[in-house]
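A reminder from the course coordinator: this example appears on the midterm review sheet, so study it carefully.

Given structure:
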């Protein structure tokens, strides 16, 4: 898999990949994607001597990262007569990369796909790792497959129009990678407020985040053990994210992860194998300084417990936690007493 990161890459995408070998190429995107991004990659049609096929779906996870939307994508792919030699290009944020990857991986038992993530969160998280999926019955990413794209193109120029809240939200995953990797990278990604990093600095941060995740995934592609460190903050984070969709102020993914990180670091601190008070303070301070939330409103303990009890990472009804021992060391498959879990959840609601 080829991962290319830089500036103004979409304008020369024909030089980055050989598109002539595909019978047809479709682009999956959403209603929020800027027209100029589609026009930039439309040069691909020169390789095909035919127009690109555009498939547009509603924007946002709340509106349809589910099987009904995937069915519409599959139907469109059949109508357009895509075959097993076709390519699906996923142009958009994490929802497009996740759902497009899943649709491609299951269409006719699998066709190739290329990810072009246009949000910072997707660039550091959803675009790499080989996980594709959709939400089901209030459980995030409950249905999916492991399948890598043929490549990932990350053009930081796409971040120019990214809303400030979404830019800051992405630092939830970036700070998580910092906690996993160690104090040097943690210090780098928390050295400024997210909006103060230059494009060149963001390229460095994106490259580092992708390297951290890719190195882990190479060692454990199917999440048998080591890869579970990437779930830090996600067990509780995914639960509160799903629950927030019912409110008039739904949380973004990165915001949910940081709240989950606060709760799970708290949980680690109360566990004998867990995090020191000093590192808990450093992690919380980094999250606050980035402008990310540490608490969530209008969510009940009972509802959070219900969702985490159905988490796909559980085994025989036991929740397998990924908890930090310190910055630079996250333990996996940690079992924790229920009363400590309850107290950790109470700390963020």
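Designed residues:
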């Amino acid at each position: 898999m080829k991962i290319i990161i830089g500036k103004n890459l979409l304008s020369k995408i024909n030089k980055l990949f050989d598109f002539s070998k595909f019978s047809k190429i479709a682009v999956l995107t959403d209603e929020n994607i800027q027209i100029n991004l589609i026009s930039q990659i439309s040069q691909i049609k020169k390789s095909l001597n035919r127009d690109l096929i555009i498939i547009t779906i509603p924007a946002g996870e709340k509106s349809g990262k589910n099987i009904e939307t995937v069915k519409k994508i599959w139907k469109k792919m059949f109508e357009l007569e895509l075959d097993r030699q076709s390519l699906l290009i996923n142009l958009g944020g994490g929802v497009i990369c996740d759902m497009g990857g899943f649709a491609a991986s299951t269409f006719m038992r699998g066709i190739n796909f290329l990810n072009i993530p246009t949000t910072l969160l997707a660039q550091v998280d959803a675009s790499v790792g080989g996980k594709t999926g959709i939400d089901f019955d209030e459980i995030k990413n409950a249905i999916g497959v492991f399948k890598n794209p043929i490549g990932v193109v990350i053009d930081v120029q796409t971040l120019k129009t990214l809303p400030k809240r979404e830019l800051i939200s992405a630092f939830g995953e970036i700070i998580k990678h910092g906690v996993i990797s160690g104090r040097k990278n943690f210090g780098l990604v928390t050295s400024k407020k997210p909006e103060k990093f230059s494009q060149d600095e963001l390229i460095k941060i994106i490259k580092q985040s992708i390297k951290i995740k890719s190195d882990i995934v190479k060692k454990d592609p199917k999440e048998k053990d080591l890869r579970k460190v990437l779930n830090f903050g996600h067990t509780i984070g995914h639960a509160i994210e799903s629950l927030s969709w019912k409110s008039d102020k739904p949380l973004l993914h990165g915001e949910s992860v940081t709240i989950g990180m606060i709760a799970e670091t708290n949980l680690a601190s109360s566990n004998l194998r867990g995090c020191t008070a000093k590192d808990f303070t450093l992690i919380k301070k980094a999250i606050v300084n980035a402008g990310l939330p540490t608490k969530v409103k209008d969510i009940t303990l009972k509802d959070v417990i219900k969702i985490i009890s159905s988490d796909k990472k559980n085994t025989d009804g036991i929740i397998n936690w990924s908890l930090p021992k310190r910055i630079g060391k996250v333990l996996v498959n940690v079992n924790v007493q229920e009363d400590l879990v309850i107290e950790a959840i109470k700390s963020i609601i």
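The chain has two domains: 2-160, 168-346. The chain has a mean pLDDT of 91.
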